[in-house]
Amino acid sequence: MKVIKIGVIILCLLSLVNLMVFFLSPRYSKTSLVTIEQGVTAQQVAELLEQEGLISSKNYFLFLLRLRGGHRKIKAGIYEINSKESTWRIISKLVLGKSKKVKLTIPEGFTARQIAQLIEQKGLGEKDRFLEIVEERKLEGYLFPETYFVDYDATEEEVVDMMVDQFNKVFTKEMEERGKKFKFTKRDTVILASIIEKEAVKDEERPLISAVFHNRLKKRWYLESCATVQYALGEHKEKLTYKDVKVDSPYNTYIHFGLPPGPICNPGLAAIKATLYPAQTDLMFFVTKGEGTHRFSKYYQKHLEVQKKKSKR
Questions:
Q1: Which residues are CB-contacts of 33 (< 8 A; sequence separation ≥ 6)?
Q2: What is the pTM for the complete model shown?
Q3: To which CATH superfamily is domain 23-96 assigned?
Q4: What is the pLDDT of residues 98-120, one digit of tens each?
């Protein structure tokens, strides 16, 4: 009998709570971003929500919060709250720390400067501060292209760390060991991957482009990558001139042997894998055919013929 009485009491309490939710919920719709600072009390949170018109009664909010046992468990953050949400749902959001997240997608091959502009557009920080951190820590190439869900109030440092952490997860110890086969350091692998990322469009061509660069490095030929010249110029040009390929920069692989001093973009996993697993071929040249494809050649004479045919079109 005691068990039945307790059950009836609980049912009555739940019914009462549901009635209170119905009568005390705001009848209009309003969405607000609410900032909960570290160390604020439940009372202060309740007052803030009431002032914002997101709850009808701070006392009811505190009653439900105690019922849940979460009066000391509200997590700091920035929360997106709609006044039509039930008080119980709002409490769950605050206790579970479901703060506002911003979707941030970094495309493969973006430079740090492009990423910085995207971050500023998303309202996640100042591009100049982001670039300052990247340049101080020499992180071009290590900002891994991925879709991130970033806290609305994340700092520029936290966004940078998030991308670098993802790079470190993706670039495994096995990859680092594989690079040693080509006498590459981890940084060498990232540098060449960044060039391949910028030169290749089609997935199937990445290993071939990688093979061309590997073959050139072995023979001590200039890499002659147009992508490195574009980076040296600081702008993208549809067609490079003779003057462009003579630009005085350590990144210009038409006039400097070997790899440039740093990555020219932030490569994705496919470009990194292509760097470490080039196609088995003796190709030495490639030239774009348009629409993201290339024509590959072993001999210089054939390469010149391809270029002449292209220029006549």
A1: 78, 79, 80, 100, 152
A2: 0.77
A3: Endolytic murein transglycosylase (3.30.1490.480)
A4: 888 888 999 999 999 999 999 99
